[in-house]
Hints:
The complex is a heterodimer of chains A (143) and B (99).
Chain A lengths: L8 E5 L5 E5 L4 H11 E3 L5 E3 L1 H12 E4 L11 H9 L3 H28 L13 H4 L9
Antiparallel strand pairs in A: 1-2, 2-5, 3-4
Helix pairs in contact in A: 1-2, 2-3, 2-4
Chain B lengths: L2 E12 L2 E13 L5 E10 L1 H6 L4 E7 L2 E13 L2 E6 L14
Antiparallel strand pairs in B: 1-2, 1-4, 2-3, 3-6, 4-5, 5-6
Amino acid sequence: MSHFVTPETIRLELPGADWLLVKRRLSAGEYRAMLRRMSTLNGDGTYHVDPLETGIARMVAYLVDWSFPEYPIRGKTHVDVYAACDQLDPDDFELVKEAVAAHEAAMTAERERQKKVLGGATASPSISPSPAAATGATNGFAT
Amino acid sequence: MPLAITGVAAVVRWAYYDAAVVHGYRIGRDDAQQWHVRATVIHVNRVNLELGRGALVFVATHQGGEWTWPIESYTLTENLFTARLGPPDTGSHVPLRHA
């Protein structure tokens, strides 16, 4: 399993012969950008997740193309894809949102299965104790 | 007879990622029918350029869509991008790698 995300896509079929082309998985940077779009900055410098933005942020993060001919999104900026999603009929918006969320859940489950097969499901990385810890010494400056 | 295509803006893509944005490109085909490109780099994602090696395409947009050439090999020196290209795909879309 590669440590890097390769740009693979999956086609999700929708009712009525429509389809979505989505990223198979997000890179760390794309995931972080998605979280940023889901969040608003509080006055105290902390972020909080805005539940009204989670669905559309996930759609923008994953969508590569769709079959809706009025406004093709392939190659469009995130701003344009966001605007296109906002302009969808509310029922279609829900359909796309649910399809993308289900895809994300399926890919997460698939990766968890792969981790189990590779034997790294829940194990923490093994870290050897430092020489100081092994000898009972403490770190820090002498006073 | 050698052929040359010049243009202003183009991109080097790795599927849906832009690996580089280039300017002032010149694409040519030599007497041996081998395609080449030479362009000035405006922006580059060196990680995607390296990870995508072997699956990169050079994309030149035109009014009706896009011309794409698979990149067989490339060199990036300072801000100069040069590449050896495969035969062009004159379809309007860059093919994506399906899982």
